[in-house]
């Protein structure tokens, strides 16, 4: 069965001309979608075909009268059958993908387009089934909004798009999560996409997309969707909380450092936070005698698994930013879901602090596998220290790593801020 739209407008030619092209034009030729346009002026009774008048009570502008609108609705209903009647107006709930999916199940949809200051509200109150707005802005009329609804709804009908996977993997798709994420937990923006050439004016496509490693590509896309969504549309994600009894630990990664003594003020201050603390030091001489030691992160995971009875999840803690930029539990838990299995959703979390962030003699440095010299201000917590090399976000969403040394008090403040954001 085809999907039929009845568009009521003062500019039927504008609707018809737009819909002749592209996939919607082909869908109409194939009989998958039908669009009929009805001009309100055909249902006026004066020689000037007047559809508007001044509003009762005064005010600026003109208002479309109810009789031509209602007569147009009744005439089309009598000629072609009943329809679900929608008034497009700024003073209405926002049209979104969920509404498009619901409307795509209907056989006939009527779209009433207003002009001037809108349509007499008796039409809204008594002659339509629902109202939609495209967003918090004003257009000169409802035609553009009606076209947007037609396109968003039509593309969900079988056969209109040649590849159904295009719908399943796009932004706002219902129930679709990046690979590895639990289904049904909010919505995601789509990951970045690229095509040939692999380099354009010095800008390269991320290497992972060129290598043919499909599991790696899936992981990259999942993380890219996570980063883009939390940077640009965090409102799409649920407000998840860290369970109060979920263990939270701290690990300081010294790498190849020989001597931990200059870091003693930082150590003592961090110990005051009350978090169980471990050292990661490739050279045993760097480890503290009073704090458990592991030679690398894999060994730390193994040791903590023996100690806690469950494998922990390691999260890189970057002290290059403002405490206010440290994200809360929701983005962190989303990211852990993307990189872990279902059995790890309650696993202990280990905040891994780079030792060079504690060293007054060295600059803060990005993690070795991070790539760019700048990191996203919205993501001071980067689980497992794996950022997406080459991933660009919106301008202004980035910060430069600080080259100023951190005092013990500053380090403790930043770590305490991260813990507070996770526990609140």
Instruction: Give a quick account of the main beta sheet: strands, pairing sense, barrel closure.
Output: 6 strands, mixed
Averaging pLDDT over every residue, what do you get? 81
Q: Could you give the distance between the termini?
A: 52 Å
Radius of gyration: 29 Å
Sheet-strand content, in percent, reads 15-25%
Cross-sheet strand order for the largest sheet: 12-11-10-14-13-16
Number of helical stretches of at least 4 residues: 12
The SSE order reads EHHEEEHEHEHEHHEEHEHEEHEHEEEEH
The outline comes out as: elongated
Total beta strand runs? 17
Structural class: alpha/beta
> Could you list the spans in which at least 5 consecutive residues all have pLDDT below 50?
180-184, 360-403
Helical residues, percent: 25-40%
List the SSEs and their pairings:
Blueprint: E1 3-9, H1 12-19, H2 22-29, E2 33-39, E3 52-53, E4 63-64, H3 66-80, E5 84-88, H4 97-103, E6 108-113, H5 121-126, E7 130-132, H6 143-154, H7 165-168, E8 199-200, E9 203-204, H8 214-232, E10 248-255, H9 264-271, E11 277-281, E12 293-294, H10 297-308, E13 313-317, H11 329-339, E14 349-354, E15 374-376, E16 381-383, E17 398-400, H12 408-423
Parallel strand pairs: 1-2, 1-6, 5-6, 5-7, 10-11, 10-14, 11-12, 13-14
Antiparallel strand pairs: 3-4, 8-9, 13-16, 15-17
Helix pairs in contact: 8-11, 9-12
